[in-house]
Design goal:
alpha/beta
Length: about 240
Amino acid sequence: MLRMSQVSKVYRTELVETHALRELDLHVEEGEFIAVTGPSGSGQTTFLNIAGLLESPSSGTYLLDGEDVGTLNDNRRSRIRNEKVGFIFQSFNLIPDLNLADNVDVPLRYRGWSGAKRRRAIGDMLDMVGLGSRQNYLPSQLSGGQQQRVAIARALAGRPRFLLADEPTGNLDSEMAASVMNLLKSINDEGTTIVMVTHDPDLAHQASRNIHILDGRASDITPDDVPNVTPLEAARV
């Protein structure tokens, strides 16, 4: 499904050359739940941006569902991203002056779906995350955990092939974090592929496979090898 081979990403200015990824090899099969760990500054965010077609690699090959997407133009990348990728962010990224239904509706409008099809998808997804009765609420009227559930509903409404989650529980207390993690696992059980960046070893242990990125390179590790990260290190991400 997702295959990166010898992927490197270099950011250049007039004076500095920064290697964010170095010949990274990573294969993610359909239906997996992958936790990506590593110290701050090791390349996890760059990896997510490339995986989600927000950036292109400087070199190497990125195949998504067998298609070489690493060298596509912006329009083609945007179309594939809208059709196949769902994003979940630590900061929720909900639009504060739109109600829950309209927040979930935003990416669907770019699909060209009819109003009736969009309304069905919105209702189904909000029901799935337990917020079907609150479609007219504003994000500010919800707890942090509920806002993250709306973000998950928005990510899933277009039925993407896989989800990219960047510290999805980072702004939540332990009870809310457990609730969101249980929801992600149930989504994965239904067949959605999930790639989650996290600094929380307890969350990483719950994934089906752990990938550790260090100095821009990726390696498989066992859950018991996931390093503990201090709150200060996690805050730097």
